[in-house]
Amino acid sequence: MKRVILLRGPRSVMAASAPEWAAAQTWAKAAERIVVHKGLNAPAEPGGVPTPPVYDAVIELWSDAALDAHSIRSDWKEVEVRSSAQVVGKAAAAPLPTGITPGLSQLSFIRAIEALPRQDVERHWDEHIPLACEIHVGMNRYVQDRFSPAVPWFGMAHLHFPSEAALRDGLFRSPEDIAVITADVAEFVSDYATMIAIEHIVKA
């Protein structure tokens, strides 16, 4: 079973270092795999204030063990735990070792159009995969997590780029690409939020 843990507001010194915090949890021993995405502030305009990430940390956890969300709240102000049906749109070229993954992750959280049945949203998102792989030429991995329960987010798209330059120059090839992606996503997404993060493989 895969779960995604969305965390805001570290309350403790240990939680401020999310990868080390995750590794120290009792449920980490039983986990098959743990990946922690540590959110980065978005760059500010000249003279402005950096924008904080949507979440301070996002944890991907592969485990069948029980997870006590209440105990997590002793270290974090806000905790959301979601089951995930994972869809791999573009797999990694090789298994990822433990430690910090080179490059940057872009995590996009989507809200589905309320009037659409879940199966229609999933179908649209399936059909989005080849377009994303064609247009986001700089990414080396693409994964969709479809949440249950699907509130407030229907799911999370994880685009990984091997370097800052790959993200900057390879997210879109042209302004026309932005329009194409925007039009396609508008068929099933009502709202979204995006953050940049550093990926830590805590347990592989």
Structural class by sheet pairing and helices? alpha+beta
Biggest sheet record: 8 strands, antiparallel, barrel
Helix count from the secondary structure assignment = 5
Give the helix level as a range of percent: 10-25%
Query: Strand sequence of the main sheet, in spatial order?
Result: 1-3-2-9-6-8-7-4
> What is the CA-atom radius of gyration, in angstroms?
17 Å
How many β strands by DSSP? 9
Strand content range:
35-45%
Beginning-to-end CA distance, first to last residue: 15 Å
Descriptive overview:
With 204 residues, the chain is an alpha+beta fold. Helix content is 23%, strand content 39%. The protein contains five helices and nine strands, in the order βαββαβββαββααβ. It has helices at residues 18-24, 69-72, 118-135, 164-170, 175-185; strands spanning 2-10, 33-40, 57-62, 76-90, 99-100, 104-112, 141-148, 155-161, 189-203. It has an eight-stranded antiparallel beta barrel. α3 (118-135) packs antiparallel against α5. The model has no long low-confidence stretch (mean pLDDT 95).
What's the helix and strand layout?
Elements: E1 2-10, H1 18-24, E2 33-40, E3 57-62, H2 69-72, E4 76-90, E5 99-100, E6 104-112, H3 118-135, E7 141-148, E8 155-161, H4 164-170, H5 175-185, E9 189-203
Antiparallel strand pairs: 1-3, 1-4, 2-3, 2-9, 4-7, 5-9, 6-8, 6-9, 7-8
Helix pairs in contact: 3-5
Gist of the model:
By secondary structure, the protein is of the alpha+beta class. Helices cover about 25% and strands about 40% of the residues.
List keywords for this structure.
204 residues, alpha+beta, eight-stranded antiparallel β-barrel, 5 helices, 9 strands, 23% helix, globular
